[in-house]
Amino acid sequence: MKPTLHIYRSLPPAEHRQPCALTIGSFDGVHLGHQAILARVCEAAANRGLLPSAMTFSPHPREYFARLRGLPDLVPRRISSLRDQCMALAQAGMRQLVVRRFDHTLANMSPDDFVRHILVEGLDVRWLLVGSDFRYGRARSGDIATLRQAGAEHGFEVHTLDDVLDARGRRISSSDIREALASADMVLARDLLGRWPSICAHVRHGRKLGRNLGFPTMNQGVPERSALRPGIYVTRVHGLADRPLAGVSSLGVRPTIEGEGKLLLETHLLDTSADAYGKLINVEFLHYLRDEKKFSDLDALTAAIRQDADDARAYFSVHGL
């Protein structure tokens, strides 16, 4: 039986509270830098008999302050949905995740109150790992020095982790991954994430237009403000068979059909079919083929889809599944 990740939208109730080893961060994408942090937490928890835990915030603090100031363009794009984030945290060994709402109350909490009410009374933290630039409390007035003082007072250890570097000696950051996804550099995104970029969501019913054109598709919702560049991709699909399946996907708003619809992921399986409705599938993005565009008619759209499928087959003939 696989260990369970317990997810709390606030603090865990008293009857479920256990002494924990904790890390705090956004963990968007759960990239290689995050994975190094989580490994340290797991090691400390195992050595001390603590519950390996993570705390993140929703919305992201940057999103909260951007919207508060009326600057929506500063809201960061999402690398992964909350579901994907939770799955990755569980795979990394976390057994408790606190998704704390970031609101006016939290933004204006003093550093002392944050430590006392959330870390000590709310989570029973005994070991804490944060980045060396970690700030907390109202106006970011708490820092590592004040956190260490609080730890000495309340009985928890405070540790920091320096930046994790990639093969080029550069800091691995969510910002770099967002840039790689926006420019459709899937290989760089994979190297920073430690896995291919992906979207995991349930397949839902669509308008069946792809089927009528001879290219049936599986439709999935896309995380709001997805960092992935819209367009046509070579993809690999998990969750429908005991092996990955080859696909070609459109991430876009279907301008030929709807003019300007809601962002949607549509995936056509190459040379196979599957009963996918209602199933949770994971679509990995391997290679960018082209931008989404508006065609003059359905015949032109069908010809473009046929070419996309051929280009995807050519990719797999070289790279395999």
From TrEMBL:
<dbReference type="InterPro" id="IPR023468">
    <property type="entry name" value="Riboflavin_kinase"/>
</dbReference>
<dbReference type="Pfam" id="PF06574">
    <property type="entry name" value="FAD_syn"/>
</dbReference>
<comment type="pathway">
    <text>Cofactor biosynthesis; FMN biosynthesis; FMN from riboflavin (ATP route): step 1/1.</text>
</comment>
<dbReference type="InterPro" id="IPR014729">
    <property type="entry name" value="Rossmann-like_a/b/a_fold"/>
</dbReference>
<dbReference type="InterPro" id="IPR002606">
    <property type="entry name" value="Riboflavin_kinase_bac"/>
</dbReference>
<keyword id="KW-0274">FAD</keyword>
<dbReference type="InterPro" id="IPR015865">
    <property type="entry name" value="Riboflavin_kinase_bac/euk"/>
</dbReference>
<dbReference type="InterPro" id="IPR023465">
    <property type="entry name" value="Riboflavin_kinase_dom_sf"/>
</dbReference>
<dbReference type="GO" id="GO:0005524">
    <property type="term" value="F:ATP binding"/>
</dbReference>
<dbReference type="InterPro" id="IPR015864">
    <property type="entry name" value="FAD_synthase"/>
</dbReference>
<keyword id="KW-0067">ATP-binding</keyword>
<feature type="domain" description="Riboflavin kinase">
    <location>
        <begin position="192"/>
        <end position="317"/>
    </location>
</feature>
<protein>
    <recommendedName>
        <fullName>Riboflavin biosynthesis protein</fullName>
        <ecNumber>2.7.1.26</ecNumber>
        <ecNumber>2.7.7.2</ecNumber>
    </recommendedName>
</protein>
<keyword id="KW-0548">Nucleotidyltransferase</keyword>
<keyword id="KW-0808">Transferase</keyword>
<dbReference type="GO" id="GO:0009231">
    <property type="term" value="P:riboflavin biosynthetic process"/>
</dbReference>
<keyword id="KW-0285">Flavoprotein</keyword>
<dbReference type="Pfam" id="PF01687">
    <property type="entry name" value="Flavokinase"/>
</dbReference>
<comment type="similarity">
    <text>Belongs to the ribF family.</text>
</comment>
<dbReference type="GO" id="GO:0003919">
    <property type="term" value="F:FMN adenylyltransferase activity"/>
</dbReference>
<keyword id="KW-0418">Kinase</keyword>
<dbReference type="GO" id="GO:0006747">
    <property type="term" value="P:FAD biosynthetic process"/>
</dbReference>
<dbReference type="GO" id="GO:0008531">
    <property type="term" value="F:riboflavin kinase activity"/>
</dbReference>
<keyword id="KW-0511">Multifunctional enzyme</keyword>
<comment type="function">
    <text>Catalyzes the phosphorylation of riboflavin to FMN followed by the adenylation of FMN to FAD.</text>
</comment>
<keyword id="KW-0288">FMN</keyword>
<keyword id="KW-0547">Nucleotide-binding</keyword>
<comment type="pathway">
    <text>Cofactor biosynthesis; FAD biosynthesis; FAD from FMN: step 1/1.</text>
</comment>
<dbReference type="GO" id="GO:0009398">
    <property type="term" value="P:FMN biosynthetic process"/>
</dbReference>
